Input
Amino acid sequence: MTPSTPAVTPLRQRMLDDMRMRKLRPKTQAAYIRAVRYLAGFLQRSPDTATAEDLPRFQLHMVDRGVSPITLNATITGLKFFFDVTLDCGELKARMSYVHVPQKLPVVLSRLHAYAAPHLCHAPAGAEG
Output
């Protein structure tokens, strides 16, 4: 007896083929499929039936759930691929917009700390300095 594998829908297979043709990495493919699956769960219907009104509602739903800006942008990228490449519906792609990701400022040492930092390191035993 062989274990049963879930059937792949024609729409998912078409998206998988589109991603393979463009040589997207397996992790990217998984992320894009996850984004479309997430949209389908939100809509409670096939993602190819999404309307221009559904996409901003989905984006607001993710924001309301506290999805991080990075995850939100990754999801939008997957959906833009789906609508633009797999469905050839560029007008729907335009309905989703990326969010600003705040940049973390680098740690800047004061002159005193920058001067003291090399002196705080201890040489290994037996090393001559």
